[in-house]
Amino acid sequence: MLKNKNILIGVSGSIAAYKSAFLVRLLVKAGANVKVIMTEAATGFITPLTLSTLSKNPVLIDFTKNKEGEWNNHVELGLWADALVIAPASANTIAKMANGICDNLLLATYLSARCKVYLAPAMDLDMYKHKATIDNLKRLQSFGNGIIAPGNGELASGLFGEGRMAEPEEIIEFLEKQFSSSLPLSGKKVLVTAGPTYEAIDPVRFIGNHSSGKMGFALAEELASQGADVTLVCGPNSLSLTNKNISKIDITSAEELYNASVKAFKNADVAILSAAVADYKPASTAKQKIKKTEATKNIELVPTKDTLAELGKLKKTKQLLVGFALETNNEVENAKAKIKKKNLDLIVLNSLNDKGAGFKSDSNKITIIDKNNKSIKFELKSKAEVAKDIVNVISKLLNPKSQNLKS
Ligand code: CTP
């Protein structure tokens, strides 16, 4: 969520300034670009060298960079930032911000910043409770600034109470939430199925397929990066996830996939079923390993439950259902028939006849067809890019103004 975000950290004079070193380190680790502005008072608590080393950028303190009078452009800094986070925000800095006072670089940047501004107050218990501070914070909130509430605990004065700056981890969590709430799929719940299913013959053997799960995992990552809350129901795989907004449910058989998906679909806005589910399973599973001597040449098979078809029956008006079709012949006709048969909104067709498309490959070539038979053909792309294309089409459908695909 914080990857490639430009974060401007303002550090004002408070003992909690030591925590800003951890905050900068965590932000850089999360992939953010970080610049730091300190007030003169803050330099008495932590050295600019510490923060410039951790942020990998020079720390800015004065209006001018050097004796020649080259200035630190506070307007540019304010425009560069996706967020200005003042942590710690001392009682003095809060009071100046609330009253438009502009006697240092941090305050000038605050006044000219067009991005969201968040502040993490840090001060002694009585200062925090003083009517002047309470009024100043209310005033800042009325300007649209976000307050990252301080914690309760032992303060530098030895007193116990409110006023301890929020921990760096809490500030990171707060920022992640703020950024995710402005994303296009924020607040949407999406179910994704991925990977193969294994249908047990006996304790050591199964009927399975070559699906790697890569397409479904790429979809889950893309959806989560656009703010969706994703439930990923996946069969056996060797993949890993990076986004924390994905809840993974591991399953093995088609029956387990069915049960987990039907449950998750109840609260979902969208379901994308990319799993390669076995269509048949052994009529019974042997409790012991079947010996060569006792094996019959035939295994009786029975159909598995069709999760996509069931979700098509359960689907409510506002829910979107997306299926996948892997075909070898009469691709488009077969895919269109599946839309009707399973009550889908969209189907993602990939053909085994296309080079670079299919199970284990890192790339895929798809055509998306909607329930009105409008279709879009895409070029061969990496599965991550294919996931972007699919998610963009879904995003447009979630916006009531655009109901159909452009053919
Ligand atoms: N699917 C499912 N549960 C099953 C079988 C399939 O949820 N038991 C889903 C797949 O995840 C995919 C879609 O159904 O999204 C298409 O699967 P496919 O096996 O191609 O379609 P079938 O209806 O089984 O038709 P056929 O095998 O004849 O092509």
Task: Please provide a brief summary of the model.
The protein has 407 residues and is an alpha/beta fold.
Q: Could you explain how this protein is built, in words?
A:
This protein is of the alpha/beta class and 407 residues long. It has 2 domains: 175 residues, Rossmann fold; 210 residues, 3-Layer(aba) Sandwich (Rossmann fold), CATH 3.40.50. It is 33% helix and 23% strand. It has an 8-stranded mixed beta sheet, with helices on both faces. A hairpin with a 5-residue loop joins strand 9 and strand 10. Helix 1 packs parallel to helix 2, helix 1 crosses helix 8 and helix 3 packs across helix 5. The mean pLDDT is 92. Cytidine-5'-triphosphate binds next to helix 11 and strand 16.
Runs in which pLDDT lies below 50 for 5 or more consecutive residues are none
The assigned structural class equals alpha/beta
CATH architecture of the largest domain: 3-Layer(aba) Sandwich
Helical coverage, percent range: 25-40%
Bound small molecules, deduplicated: cytidine-5'-triphosphate
Count of helical segments? 13
| Quaternary structure | single chain
Mean pLDDT: 92
Based on CA inertia axes, which overall geometry fits? elongated
Based on DSSP secondary structure assignment, what is the total number of beta strands? Answer: 21
Strand order of the largest sheet: 12-11-8-13-16-17-19-20
What is the CA-CA span between the terminal residues?
Answer: 33 Å
State the CATH class of the largest domain: Alpha Beta
Q: β content, as a range? A: 15-25%
- What is the CATH T-level topology of the largest domain? Rossmann fold
